[in-house]
Specification:
Largest sheet: none
Shape: rod-shaped
Protein name: Holin-X, holin superfamily III
Order of helices and strands: HHH
Number of helices: 3
Keywords: Membrane, Transmembrane, Transmembrane helix
């Protein structure tokens, strides 16, 4: 009777060990899949940011020249037009600098939500 109990306990331990190995294997496969998803998502996000950033930069350059020329004609002095556009960019830079901590917090929250949310997989 006691030997039967030891045998059944031994079999249960061996069976539990195989379940543990299977769990570890599945967890490893899940981790690989999650890492792949995060790398693919990050790569896609970077590519989109580069493309959109390039298009926006070109737009900004051309609109800046047009605005500077227009303001220069309005002021009858091209230098003043370019200085006014430069002043506009200076104001934008000061505004971004003043609210940099809020902007940083917003970006970190968005990224953490995107890359550490288990529902995305």
């Amino acid at each position: 009777m006691i030997m039967d109990t030891f045998k059944s306990s031994k079999e249960e331990l061996i069976d539990g060990g195989s379940h543990l190995k299977e769990y570890a294997k599945k967890e490893y496969e899940y981790s690989k899949l999650k890492i792949f998803f995060q790398i693919a998502s990050l790569t896609t996000s970077i590519a989109k940011a580069i493309l959109i950033g390039t298009a926006f930069t070109l737009f900004t350059v051309f609109i800046s020249f047009a605005l500077a020329i227009g303001l220069g004609q309005l002021f009858n002095n091209m230098y003043l037009g370019y200085i006014a556009v430069a002043g506009l960019y200076l104001l934008i830079a000061v505004f971004i600098y003043a609210f940099r901590s809020k902007l940083e917090r917003f970006i970190v929250q968005k990224l953490s939500k995107t890359y550490f949310d288990d529902e995305n997989i």
